């Protein structure tokens, strides 16, 4: 285990990382997965807690940043953080314990807090209790709000009023949705009975605009308390987030945000006038899904993104404000999930399968499509006529002007937002895993964006596979796995004594044991030894040329439980937490792995860094 309180060990590890050309070493863990301290397990983790600060202390020095998951408010029926709101943050991330202290004027009673802990069904496990805490957290925060109003602290009240004023552009809509969810007894707006309430921000005429304005005023008065309470909860969370950021900054740790491709139900309702009517975002048919993936997420209307003069339209301003908020609150940067969804999205008709024969296609790459042609950037003659619409390589010719059109959302919104918040485009982490369309690859190259290389995705039969160690280039982010993958421990166990495992082992030996005289012996041993295979897979990560590394918490802490299994739902998914005793857990043997990574670079490189190797030997 690397104890980050041991400065000599950390110093040696940082020297080794620098020698291997690593600029950033980032820990990945979603907010709900943070541990608890004894006696404070409510059923959900948060970095805003004392346990969160303890982990920041643990990570300080060794890691440069913590990659968080999406921060939006999730649905009561779905724990996936990738369906959260784009502006409102998740109330589950509020540390209730702090509200029982004088810092918050004891606006939450100790008895309420203790009752939540006592009845947490998973209080003795490293699992969240999503359905349980969603209800209990709401009840506790309602109590806190009522006591806040009774308290009538002038300074805190004034601070709250300023917060509401500064964030009214999104806070008013999100809180109004909360009121309407109470009115209709469901937080899923398509099931609301009132057509007016479904379309309050999507009027089709002047008369409807007047009518809807009156309805907004009516609901705002009827549910004034509930609306104000929603805003208060966001206020509390913003203060705790700012406090955590300040603490992390003092320890040299930055936060990296995660922008999902989806919009929540709340956002779909609030901004539906900006979405392309009748179309949804998804994935085309592929090896994993012959019918494609019907995500059901709305698609931003291209005609609302930009004005005729090239300036940002209403949808463009919305998107830029979203990214500005994320970069402002997370100086470590923003990870963009499914970057193809911004550059070259696959869209399908609502209610249909996401297949070409059902009318689906690339929004900006379908000049032959009767309905999507008006948005197309390439011409029909730029396509490979022998390839189907779902083939990722069908756009064969692209001019510089066309690449710029594909990339204008990246340039005018994402990069511009980062720069306006004092960051560079290197603060943008692009999830570009899998086969990319030619337009996406061209935009990534033109704007010099940092994509990802996930070594667990290596196709062992492809010598030029981009995820294989020898093919990973410096300008990227490399990792063994993400939230959607099995831990490397399980990956290695699944390949022991298999032909596929042999192919992976053969490649690893070719890439990392080039000068070994006993390659065959190493292959035989690694093929049957899961621990050796796992260790070598980790060595590969540090030995590759990538300048930026990320490591998911299950891999660093040698865990054998999976955080998320794609395609599944329910409380068991997205529920894994770092155990409360994480500081005593056996982590990967980082000094040994770094030593082997240096040796894997060749005898000359090892000789140049022999003093570092010696120091790594001393701290194992």
Would you give an account of this structure?
The chain has 620 residues and is an alpha/beta fold. Among the domains are: 83-257, no CATH class; 271-333 and 345-422, no CATH class. 44% of the residues lie in helices and 9% in strands. It is built from 25 helices and twelve strands. It has helices at 7-19, 50-59, 96-99, 110-119, 130-151, 154-166, 168-184, 195-198, 206-222, 224-250, 265-270, 302-305, 314-329, 340-343, 400-406, 408-420, 438-446, 488-495, 499-512, 519-528, 530-543, 553-556, 590-600, 603-608, 610-619, and strands at 24-28, 65-67, 254-259, 275-283, 293-300, 333-336, 346-349, 361-362, 428-430, 451-454, 476-479, 548-552. The strands form two sheets. Strands 9-6-3-2-1-12-11-10 form an eight-stranded parallel β-sheet. The N and C termini lie close together (8 Å).
């Amino acid at each position: 285990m690397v104890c980050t309180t041991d400065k000599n060990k950390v110093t040696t590890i940082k020297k080794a990382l620098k020698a291997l050309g690593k600029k950033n070493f980032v820990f990945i863990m979603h907010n709900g997965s943070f541990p608890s301290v004894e006696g404070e397990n409510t059923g959900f983790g948060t970095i805003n807690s004392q346990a969160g600060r303890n982990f920041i202390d643990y990570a300080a020095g060794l890691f440069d940043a913590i990659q968080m998951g999406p921060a939006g408010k999730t649905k009561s029926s779905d724990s996936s953080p990738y369906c959260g709101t784009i502006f409102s943050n998740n109330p589950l991330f509020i540390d209730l314990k702090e509200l029982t202290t004088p810092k918050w004027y004891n606006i939450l009673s100790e008895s309420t807090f203790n009752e939540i802990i006592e009845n947490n069904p998973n209080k003795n496990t490293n699992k969240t209790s999503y359905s349980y805490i969603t209800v209990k957290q709401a009840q506790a925060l309602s109590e806190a709000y009522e006591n806040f109003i009774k308290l009538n602290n002038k300074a805190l009240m004034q601070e709250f009023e300023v917060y509401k004023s500064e964030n009214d552009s999104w806070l008013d809509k999100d809180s109004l949705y909360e009121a309407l969810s109470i009115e209709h007894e469901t937080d899923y707006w398509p099931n609301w009975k009132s057509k007016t309430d479904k379309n309050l921000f999507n009027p089709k005429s002047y008369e409807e605009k007047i009518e809807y304005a009156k309805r907004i005023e009516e609901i705002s008065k009827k549910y004034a308390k509930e609306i104000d309470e929603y805003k208060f909860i966001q206020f509390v969370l913003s203060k705790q987030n700012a406090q955590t950021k300040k603490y992390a900054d003092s320890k040299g740790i930055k936060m990296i945000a995660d922008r999902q491709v989806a919009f929540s139900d709340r956002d779909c309702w609030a901004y539906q006038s900006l979405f392309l009517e009748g179309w949804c975002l998804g994935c085309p048919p592929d090896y994993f899904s012959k019918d494609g993936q019907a995500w059901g997420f709305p698609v931003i209307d291209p005609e609302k993104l930009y004005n005729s003069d090239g300036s940002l339209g209403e949808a463009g301003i919305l998107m830029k404000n979203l990214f500005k908020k994320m970069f402002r609150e997370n100086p470590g940067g923003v990870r963009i999930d499914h970057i193809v969804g911004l550059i070259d999205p696959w869209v399908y008709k609502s209610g249909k399968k996401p297949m070409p024969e059902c009318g689906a296609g690339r929004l900006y790459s379908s000049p032959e499509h009767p309905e999507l042609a008006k948005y197309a950037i390439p011409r029909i003659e730029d396509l490979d006529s022998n390839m189907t619409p779902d083939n990722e390589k069908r756009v064969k010719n692209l001019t510089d002007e066309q690449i710029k059109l594909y990339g204008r959302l990246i340039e005018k919104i994402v990069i511009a937002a980062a720069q306006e918040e004092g960051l560079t485009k290197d603060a943008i982490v692009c999830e570009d895993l899998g086969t990319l369309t030619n337009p996406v690859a061209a935009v990534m190259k033109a704007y010099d964006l940092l994509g990802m290389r996930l070594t667990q995705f290596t196709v062992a039969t492809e010598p030029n596979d981009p995820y294989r160690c020898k093919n990973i280039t410096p300008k990227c982010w490399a990792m063994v796995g993400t939230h959607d993958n099995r831990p490397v421990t399980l990956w290695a166990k699944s390949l022991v004594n298999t032909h596929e495992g042999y192919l992976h082992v053969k490649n690893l030996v070719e890439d990392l044991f080039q000068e070994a005289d006993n390659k065959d012996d190493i292959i035989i041993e690694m093929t049957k030894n899961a621990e050796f295979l796992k260790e070598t897979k980790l060595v590969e990560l540090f030995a590759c040329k990538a300048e930026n590394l990320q490591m998911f918490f299950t891999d660093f802490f040698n865990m054998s439980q999976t955080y998320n299994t794609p395609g599944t739902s329910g409380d068991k998914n997205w529920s894994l937490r770092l155990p409360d005793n994480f500081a005593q857990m056996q982590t990967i043997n980082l000094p040994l792995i770094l030593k082997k990574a240096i040796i894997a670079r060749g005898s000359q490189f090892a000789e140049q860094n022999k003093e570092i190797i010696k120091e790594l030997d001393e701290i194992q």
